[in-house]
Amino acid sequence: MASYHIWTIGCQMNQADSEQLAANLERLGYQPAPEIEKADLIVLNTCVVRQSAENRVLGKLDSLKELKRLSPNTVVALAGCMVDSGVDQLKHRFPYVDLFLKPGQFNELLELAKARAPKVSDSVTASAHSPTAFVTIIEGCDNFCSYCIVPYRRGREKSHPIAELRCQVESLAERGVKEITLLGQNVDSYGHDLPEKPGLSDLLQELNSIEGLARIRFLTSHPKDMSPKLIQAVASLEKVCEHISLPVQAGDDKILQAMGRGYTAQYYRQLVEQIRQAIPTVAIATDVIVGFPGETEEQFRHTIELLSGLRFDTVHVAAYSVRPGTLAAKKLKDNISLFEKRRRLQQVEELQSQIASEINARLLGHTLEVLVEGKKKGKWYGRTRTDKLVFFENDANCLGQLVNVEVKKTSPWALQGLPRTSPISN
Ligand code: SAM
Ligand code: SF4
Ligand code: F3S
User: Buried-most residue among 81, 155, 213, 287 (CB within 10 A)?
Assistant: First the structure.
């Protein structure tokens, strides 16, 4: 039986692409190989959002060189955001790689896999399906934030029609998927390129009626495009979870402008206020970049003030990393030292750990609905509607069930609890 191994890093878009590829390969009769060395077909689905991600890819590629020498029949494919239009250059750099595939474009690989496929096989076993799935609703990005390489690698925005997405989600729900996460670099601009110009709120409304589906999430929202209509849709549609991912990136107006984000700190504060008023139980996550070119100590302080004032549930913080070809790389000097970037990053992390521990401590004694995604070290784990990670013990098989869990212990990163009722069947 031929086997495949997909190594994935980067954002949920890449994870979604890998899930899709795995499903297609399994349809052709391939089986997952847990160990990369044993696979007949190896795919690296890569990310280059920061130099650190790119370095991980280079390390992985290096480790495959020897593997390919010892086992020349193994197919090695480099996929994802590392693959730009300069494929010839990549071929020259990595001669042991057989295929170069742009983000989400796996056709060439699937053709080759089909040609070599084991006779399709009744022995293909249906793999145990996860109760959660990603669904990409809009590809690419039109925003061109000055620091960001994504639009150069994933192209322009392209929305999938509502009818197609409804079909896709219905078939996921039929297979037992309880929660879907709608994906896009900027989901709020969903539909602007479709003939009838639907919005994300229309899509949410449509998917909310799908039987068997219990939860709908979406990410990422762009503050400049988040409409009152969308906020209302989250507030009123029962399956749409109270969880919003709203990257702010910086708390200083000059830096926001240099980043090309299209809003001010004050606008962002008001937006968060509106969201919290409409959806009182909402959890908000954000992303922040520290050490953007020219960021002064005072400008950094504005970011710290915004974070302490708004008190997010989650903050993903990254040190600015020059990305070739971006506007910032061309026009702005990367003049904050690595030491200083690390200091700022640590300051944000310490502040956020304190805030998250306080927010989570308030959940002690509450009973929360958890969708169980798996088991780790003897404990079931899953997420609440607000995306909090919860662990609990139970003898019964809870995978894919919605379980009410009473919170007994909290930390900044996760909650521990006890199941309160038998799983809620859904
Ligand atoms: N579309 C989303 C948005 O508007 O924020 C997410 C885009 S990106 C895939 C994920 C995160 O990576 C960004 O929110 C940003 O904080 C970070 N990022 C992007 N480019 C970066 C760079 N050059 N250096 C450091 N962090 C970066
Ligand atoms: Fe990158 Fe900005 Fe697009 Fe997000 S919105 S993917 S940060 S260019
Ligand atoms: Fe990375 Fe590409 Fe996502 S660069 S963050 S995998 S869109």
Answer: 81
